[in-house]
Predict the 3D structure of the following.
Amino acid sequence: MLTETFQSIASAARNVSRNWQPMLLIAAVYACLLVVLYFFVSVREASLAQVVLTFALATTAPLLFFLLQAMIAGAAASETDKLASGTLIRKALTSFWKLLLITLPLIALAVLLAYLLGKAQARFGTTLNSPATEMPRRMANAANAREAARPIDWRAATLSTLRYLAFGLVLPLTAIHLWLATSKEGLLPASRKLKILLARAFAPQSVLTYIVGFLIFAVIPHFVLFKTIPTKHAWLEISLLAARLAIVFTLTLLGWVMTVKAISLLSTSPLSTSQPHPANEAL
């Protein structure tokens, strides 16, 4: 299993390197999505024009997101080694709405889980801090040797674990398989194969491939982004910040594309389908 998993990841990396022109197009759409999200967060609703702009950005961001995922899933589901950029974008423009429709149940489930976790947090009185604020606090507490050790809040730990498993593993992995099946077979056939897709999504090879990819597109970029190098020179600090942002942009995009491609290769591999055991064949 480990050999096939890493072989699929290596094959996905080679496929990405061969198709650098479509990757530039995907990177451009990804950059546009980040710019839209930035302006959506930074623009304040003070005037009518800003309210209209905020509404336009809120509408554009999901469309760009699913267009990006349609391009990535279309490239991953392609059976040819060389992809044409024009074909990729045309197919994505005509099929991204299918990915949006098949993801609606997952979005509803995500909203429901967020609501239930929030109710549980209010019920048990636990505090679920975000990783960006929780990690520096824990590092500061660990550095302070005089601070008394506090008992573990198991309810908070349980809720945090459920949150990370749901939003970091279960929902994204399910979405990947739904998007790949929709890109390959269409919306209705993918909807009819929901049980098969769920079983395939949480097969050991699929989960392991996603975890390896998660290290590339999530864990490493997180440490690169929040690990600062102190310096007294302003221009050097700006240069380091620009370098960190470029590395994070590259790792998140390439890591996600390679993960989707590797999962697609595993799902189409003959060994990923159920085969009779040799002992059963002998019987």
